[in-house]
DNA sequence: TAATATATGTTGTAAAAACAACAGAAATGA
DNA sequence: TCATTTCTGTTGTTTTTACAACATATATTA
């Protein structure tokens, strides 16, 4: 695992444009990125395939952006069962929540599945606006707030569905939300059946059965991704 | 529902000290709060018991802090079934994620269960640091990042457990995390059985049975809130 | 268009969870 | 200390879900 500062590393990597397309740097011009990296002291670390970037239990002080390669977050339980939580692709920001809140430990391993370059940005430098008071640093901070807030919404939403005990209740929660978002009782959903089942953490075929039971009961109608909800008198 | 600016309303409410204890205003002196409220144009709204602060589907541009009284967030599905998601107490910040991301609709109703006073802060004014460049405004922004990040961690963590399909897997996920946090295989948990069951969205007695099954299999031992995990060879 | 692949729905069976009812342990308080 | 309440564990029954295997519908592509 070798370490370089961003401005040196970027000579070979040529990732300025890629970074400029990240939400975190939205509104920052590619040519401003290098200045930003100086003031945030961005460091680029190289990991070989199979090497661990983070291990469950670590405490960290830097947020990470994957520049090249690929890494995954994996959860390994006490008894050794492994579960892949997430695949992280170039341009994605990760570990930021644990870097900002330094006391908290990282809950999962992060491991390189290809040779990878990772940009590390110290959370304090990311959050505290530097003395030079550069406008783009403030912009990054605003972007960070937006990203955290967006993620928060998505998580809250999913959690509302997953907190329901039965498949039917999960479906009702999901479909109600889709209907609220659409602003009407007829709407399309973005997920296919398998994706929806995965999202709601249920079996696909069992979910299909439940949907058709609900259709028989007159609660709703659907064809593929198009749903219609019906209020009806209790029989 | 009547509306006043903060500095006027606070004459009767006397909530400067309470606000100063909120995480959002941590590090801001009580006497600075009023200046901050001027520059953020904080408005205080009064709602009578039963009145709706927000309805599912609304778009909003202000974050809310409950000053006095009590409100709840409730989810009502398309078929009219009501579910209380959250009780909000004085000092708590809510709706901030939907205010920051203006395009998104609020997914649940918020209704006053007592006569309540609510401080509304326009999200743009909260996030954009004002021209006067007051230090405490920047401090509030830092606090907001910390709050969003903390909440993000809690949600991610809960979601990791709830994404598991079976009670056993949920328990394994929860206990593994507790063990990682403790840094050893022996630890106390903060929740009692009913709270843990609610957190994992399973039935308490079924969860108790599962725990004792796991104990019989030699995976772990426990007494009340004290748990010990055992690695053991497959029999 | 035919052939193939993919997505969705259906059914019966096995497994798991919820539910209900109760017993015993621990905590609380008079 | 005893009575009462709260918490936890246990058991049997019912309900729900997962699972597997297959049927049908839809989409894709040769």
Number of helices of chain A: 9
End-to-end separation of chain A = 67 Å
CATH fold-level name of the largest domain in chain A: Jelly Rolls
Name the CATH architecture of the largest domain in chain A: Sandwich
- The shape of chain A, in one word, is elongated
H/E element order of chain A: EHHHEEEEEEHEEHHHEHHEE
Number of domains of chain A: 2
Total strands of chain A:
12
Structural class by helix and strand composition of chain A: alpha+beta
The percentage of residues in β strands of chain A lies in 15-25%
Query: Uncertain spans of chain A, ≥5 residues at pLDDT below 50?
Result: none
Q: How helical, in percent, are the residues of chain A?
A: 40-55%
CATH class of the largest domain in chain A equals: Mainly Beta
In spatial order, strands of the major sheet of chain A run 1-2-9-4-7
Major protein interface: A-B, 58 and 58 residues
**CATH superfamily grouping of the largest domain in chain A:** Jelly Rolls
Computed Rg of chain A? 22 Å
SSE order and pairing:
The structure is a homodimer of 235-residue chains.
Chain A (H helix, E strand, L loop, with lengths): L1 E4 H8 L2 H5 L9 H11 L2 E5 L4 E3 L7 E7 L2 E6 L5 E7 L4 E2 L1 H5 L8 E4 L3 E7 H5 L7 H28 L4 H16 L3 E3 L4 H8 L3 H13 L3 E4 L2 E4 L6
Antiparallel strand pairs in A: 1-2, 2-9, 3-8, 4-7, 4-9, 5-6, 5-8, 10-12, 11-12
The structure holds a DNA duplex (30 and 30 nucleotides).
